[in-house]
Each structure stands twice: as structure tokens, then as C-alpha cells.
Specification:
With 250 residues, this protein is α/β, with parallel strands linked by helices. It has a 6-stranded mixed beta sheet with strand order 1-2-3-5-7-9, with helices on both faces. A 3-stranded parallel beta sheet has the order 4-6-8. Helix 1 links the parallel strand 2 and strand 3. It contains 11 helices and 9 strands. It is 48% helix and 16% strand.
Amino acid sequence: MTKPYVKQTIENEVGYIEFFHPAHNSLPGDILAKLANTISEAGENDAIKVIVLKSGGDRTFCAGASFKELININDAETGKVFFSGFANVINAMRKCPKFIIGRIQGKTVGGGVGLAASTDYCMGTKFAAIKLSELNIGIGPFVVGPAIERKMGLSAMSQIAIDANSFYPAEWAKQKGLFTHVYESTEELDEAVKTTAEHLCTYNTEAMLEMKKVFWKGTEDWDELLAERAQTSGRLVLSEFTKEKLKGFK
């Protein structure tokens, strides 16, 4: 299948939410909106006890924001709306009453790192190198920054945000707290994700909900914070610098 999609399947009380886009799983606004809604609905679905977030294909987990859409942003409001897409997904994950396990099979860039950081328990393969490339095009990881900082610490977030050209290996991401485990292959990753998710389904859902509240304590202002950050990105994406840079991606 080459058309973009967001789909959900339920297996043994685990809700698998999968997104896909032929451009290395980059995320345009409509896919981000579907993703946020699907996560929120899964949170309310009694047939689901634990959620797994994954992407289609075997190479890239997520290439971040859709450059095609970025190039077409011509006013601050449109910019804010676009970057709010990521804010909405992160906030949906934050507010979801169930644990979300991240399955990161390959490279992840920009907004994709933010998604990985917003899961409650994240596992990857050795191919899951990470990069925050936003500074390269004259913006910054403003919307996803709080999620990455919460998971990896300000020092690690600053390092990858400033070193916007470099991919950091999965093992480094594990040392900094983004990944809990790094596996040799996607097959091993899938087996571990399935085992972990199904095991969590045997636990008390109320206890998991209360734990989730504890894990996300201190993020209660993120609805406002991430909206402000989206506004900053939306303004910067209109700069001459960014417009010139984005021409190279046409």
C-alpha cells in the first residue's frame, strides 16, 4: 500500500496504532489529525488495555514534518495550525489513560523523535538512529522539545537540537533514556513489543492509569505551552532564511 494511512487493530487487548506515508513516514496535517484522534479514541475504548504506536514500512519510523506542506505555508496562522498537529498528537498521548509503547524500527527525525519521546515505554532496533534537523531549515524543535527534554533531559535535547546535521545512534538514545531496549532486528523488536504489551494487559488498569498520571506530573500546562511553541515555529517558517532552505527540498 502506498497511500498514507492511520489504522488501528486490536489483538489480545493491545491496540496497535499504525501510521504510514510513502515519503519516509513524514507527517502532513491530515495524518497528524487522524493520529491524534485515533490515540484519543483508543484511550476511551474498553477493549484496549495497552496501546502500541508504530509506523508502516521497515526502514524509517518517521521523517518528521511533511516538507511538502512546510513549503506551502504562507502565513503565520497556517504555520501555527500545521505545527499544532504535532502538539495535538503529543497532548493526546499525554492525556491518554493507557500506557503507550513505542515501536521504533528505523531512523527517526524531528517530530518523529517527539512522538517516540511521548510514548511511556519505547523500544527500538539498532537502526533507530535519531536526529533533530529543525535548526537546519531555520526553525527549531519547539513543539517536540518539551517531550524530548522530559524523557532525555535538557542536556541531551540541547545537544541533538544544536547538532542538527548528525544522526545519533540508537544506543546513545538508549543511554539518554529515550529507548528502554535496543534490538538487533525488527523481528526481535516485534516479539519484545508484543510480549511486553500483552504482559502489561494482565496488570490492574486502574494502577496503570494512576502511574501514568505520576509519570506526566508537571505537564498540565502543555495545552498552552505547545500552542505557544507552535506559534513560534509558525512564525519562523515564514522567514526568508527558511523559505530559501525549503526551496532545496522541492
